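Hi C.,

You asked whether I'd gotten around to modeling the 305-residue construct. I have! Everything is below, sequence then structure, no commentary in between.
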Amino acid sequence: MGAEAGRTATSYVEAQRAALKALGPAVRRGEADAVHRMRVATRRARSALKSFRPELDRAATDPLAAELKWLAAELGAERDREVLAERLAARLAELDPAPSAAVRGRVDALGAGSALAAHAAVLRTLDGARYAALLDAMGVLTSAPPYRPAARHPAGPAAEATVRRDMARLRARMAAALALGPGAERDTALHEARKAAKRARYSGEAVRPVLGGPAKAHTARMKWLQELLGEHQDSVMCRTALEGAAADARAAGEDPAPYEAMARAERARAAQQGDVSGPGAAGGQGDVSGPGAAGGQGDVSGPGA
């Protein structure tokens, strides 16, 4: 009958390899968002290798997943810096009274970095032998797939099982995170839940050719949850940077109040936008338990899965 379930996995990985190759010229030209889109394709491929473990031999996929993780890190450093710099600039602009030059300098330094240097570093990565070997390895995986016996199962039931596994993982991580009180431990747990939401989103994308509309709806819900948790993580990183600046200022005999005020403003902003660490985290508008977040109408994993 052919490796139907296996083809769902390898087709998705091949699409991400094609995206990486197609985005290369745009990244080299420095086009807006090109590096970010390449990073997303990298994450999609790595996530698929995890979601489709029943169909693909880990002896072949785990080393490739490690290389994809490396590439995502190489591509992500500048993006992360830009996000932090934008949030810091927004909080700095809101300070009343206006901050002193010393405060501005300390905050600017938190998000400092050279876009030109970052772009040059990305080009070195793309020109390197390691990246070329990664593309080759992805090509080998899809042209001579390391299928396991489950790869020959019918695609539909296998796709549903993939979604159910990833949703179970997400629910467990969300439950563990929301059982914790506010603080660093909960922030870490929510970051892990975000990774699970991303995995559930990408597996939903991968099975859409098999499951159609329900998979599309499921993917949209997972994107919503991933973005909510991503907003939380970006806010955590901003607050952490500002708390560090307050500590540095205190150690230098300077007033930490401006940095503490910005950290409070960042927390309040996150809560207003439905941040999971804010009021109503266990239910309500913008909460992770919102429509379909844990399965619901149209969920490809089935009723109450």
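If it helps when you're writing up: Confidence is low (pLDDT under 50) at residues 277-298.

Thanks,
B.
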